[in-house]
Amino acid sequence: MKTKVLYVLLVSSILSSSQLNAQTQIKFYGFTLGKYAQPIEVSKGKYQGYYKHSRSSDYGRIVLDKIKKTFTIKWSDGTDWIAKYSKIETSKTNELNHGDVMNTIYSGKWINVASSECLLLVKKTKNMGCIIILKAGTVNDENYNLHTWQNILQFRTTGGCFD
Questions:
Q1: Contacts 24+ apart (CB under 8 A), 11-16
Q2: I need a surface site. Which of 18, 71, 105, 120 has the fewest CB within 10 A?
Q3: What's the confidence (pLDDT) of residue 73?
Q4: For residue 24, what pLDDT is reported?
């Protein structure tokens, strides 16, 4: 009997620790929103999106669940934005402002919005910790051969990062 109880406790402990590793969260204390405004010509015949920026002090948490393959933005007012990701990409870059950066991109779609693409970009840096960016909604302007994101949010955090 004692052996069974110890076995159950051991299995339970392993499962809960693996679930903790599978689901992590980071608090944010505001964000900067870049909202697509219009195309802008950057060179002859080549366009990119111009974004109007605003800041917000809304706060909440970003939850990454690797078992369910979801990321959730949990806002302080109780609203949840939930996305199911289908693809993870990683790359190393060297950026002028951040030095060596490990980029992880979780690409997917919002669960509660039909066919709405989104991605969560997690940039791990040595000097600034983690930079977390959410891109949502797409703009397809055939007149300017422009395909870009509608909204780009960069969350303000204390630099903590997902494992």
A1: none
A2: 18
A3: 96
A4: 92
For residue 146, give the amino acid letter.
Answer: L
* Tokens 């605003």 belong to residue: 54
Give the max Cα distance, the chain: 79
SS3 content of the chain, % helix, strand, coil (to 5): 15, 60, 25
Computed from CA positions of residues 73, 104, 159, 34, in that sequence, does the dihedral angle turn out positive or negative? Answer: negative
Can you give the pLDDT at residue 23? 63
Residue 155's pLDDT is 96
Backbone φ, ψ for residue 89 (5° rounding): -125, 140
In this prediction, residue 1 carries a pLDDT of 53
Return the structure tokens found at 66.
């690797």
Residue type, 102: M
Domain extents in the chain: 24-155
CB 115 within 8 A of CB 109: yes
- 120: helix, coil or strand? strand
Nearest to 66 by CA among 24, 117, 26: 24
